[in-house]
Design brief:
The protein is of the alpha/beta class. It has helices at 3-6, 33-42, 60-67, 79-85, 101-110, 125-138, 152-163, 197-212, 238-243, 330-344, 352-371; strands at 24-29, 48-54, 74-76, 91-94, 114-118, 142-145, 169-177, 218-226, 249-256, 260-267, 278-282, 285-289, 303-309, 312-318, 375-376. Bound molecules: nicotinamide-adenine-dinucleotide (NAD).
Length: 382
């Protein structure tokens, strides 16, 4: 290939944004597993002061802060007390399980606090709409925690699509999953997670391709969900199998605006090793993105473009872009880009108006699966 073509696929080094000298007073709501990644990122930033934390489980927030040696943090028994009492918070990281994302995010926005909300945005379309109404009314910044957006290989997917080398996109297969990889804790019950594999890893696969093609609106969904593995003590811990009531597998056929078809499948457990790589089909070329064993925020190997050169079908390999040695990681970038957007009055790094469609697809898969037929995607006015 000529240098001019190859140079389209070389990494653009993005300058790390610098802060404006402001000190951000940050609160952490939910001090479970993922809150660790948030606090570890904030603790590397000179311009962040962790002032408050909340968790429903008595003593959990205190233990969490002790573990990180952070002193003087005011501790609360829920998001509500934290937001009622903290008067000069700049931002909160909402790290609660999916089912409480909406109430925590809405309450924080109503109190005039900027929100970094963990993925998935919430559980239903209606909740996503309510969050966006609160966001609009508050004028505050809301960003959804899709840290793979910061990965250079993920950015490359978008660059390739936008370069036009694939031509118009008409069909995408995406998804992935694990042969055996059912989580436990709060991930496997309706009352805390609301959704299973789709909320845990499916939302990433959707974001990877929808972000690349500019997040067209979903129009109709034919969805399927099952949980043959999670509920079976042969494949899951017997105690977890008893309480397992979310999906461990989902598949869907989604029509998107612009005549694009999205074929989606995601698994926490299955007999094959993969439900297939992601492939973006365009009229001039196709891009294959190898699946990862488990979502780690990047691609599972070199991507390949299939296209014709001089009338012959050829393949162009896009080498994996390795993070530089001093890279602070995707969570750091996620938290940093959120704070920088607040400081500069910039746009949310991962805006709700995009993730609304991600959430609507997941929610309509659940609804279509329950009805056993195709349904139209209905999204109330914001
Ligand atoms: N971005 C990622 O890579 C990533 C990875 C794992 C989890 N997550 C997301 O993070 C969220 C949390 O996952 P986790 O593994 O940390 O769960 P977890 O169950 O370990 O922690 C959640 C904590 O939130 C607390 N909580 C719930 N509602 C609350 C409320 N109203 N006020 C205060 N505390 C409340 C719970 O008591 C619990 O301690 C999930 O939505 C999950 O999808 C994101």
């Amino acid at each position: 290939m000529s240098d001019s073509v190859l140079s389209r696929f070389t990494q653009e080094v993005e300058e790390e944004k610098v802060s404006t000298g402001k000190v951000f007073k940050v609160g952490i709501i939910g001090t479970g597993w993922i809150a660790e990644a948030h606090i570890e990122s904030y603790l590397q930033m000179d311009d962040v002061e962790i002032v408050a934390a909340a968790d429903l489980i008595p003593g959990k927030a205190e233990k969490f802060m002790k573990r990180y040696g952070v002193e003087g943090v005011r501790l609360y028994p829920s998001h509500k007390e934290l937001l009622d009492n903290e008067k000069d918070l700049d931002a909160v990281s909402i790290c609660t399980y999916n089912k409480t994302h909406a109430e925590c995010a809405i309450y924080a926005l109503e109190k005039g606090v900027n929100v970094l909300l963990e993925k998935p945005m919430c559980v239903t379309t209606e909740e996503a709409v309510e969050i966006m109404r609160a966001e609009k009314k508050s004028g505050k910044l809301l960003s959804i925690g899709f840290q793979p957006r910061g990965d250079e290989n993920m950015k490359m997917i978008k660059k390739i699509v936008e370069s036009g080398v694939l031509g118009d996109i008409y069909y995408i297969q995406t998804g992935g999953g694990r042969r055996r990889g059912i989580p436990n804790s709060t991930f496997i019950e309706q009352k805390t997670a609301g959704i299973g594999a789709m909320g845990d890893i499916g939302c990433y696969s959707l974001d990877m391709v929808l972000n690349a093609i500019g997040y067209p609106k979903p129009l109709t969904v034919t969805g399927y969900t099952s949980n043959f593995f999670g509920t079976n003590p042969k494949y899951n811990n017997p105690e977890d199998a008893k309480r397992f009531d979310v999906e461990d597998f989902a598949a869907a056929f989604v029509r998107l605006e612009g005549g694009i078809i999205l074929d989606f499948r995601i698994a926490w457990a299955m007999h094959p090793d993969t439900p297939g790589d992601t492939i973006i089909f365009g009229k001039e070329g196709a891009l294959r993105i190898p699946s990862t064993d488990c979502w780690n925020g990047s691609t599972g190997g070199p991507m390949k473009i299939y296209h014709d050169v001089a009338g012959e079908p050829v393949e162009t390999v896009i080498p994996v872009i390795e993070a530089p040695e001093n890279d602070k990681g995707l969570f750091y970038k996620k938290c940093r880009s959120f704070l920088d957007a607040i400081a500069t009055g910039g746009k949310a790094p991962v805006p709700s108006e995009q993730i609304l469609y991600n959430q609507a697809i997941i929610d309509h898969i659940v609804k279509s699966a329950a009805l056993g037929r195709e349904i139209e995607v209905e999204i109330p006015e914001i």
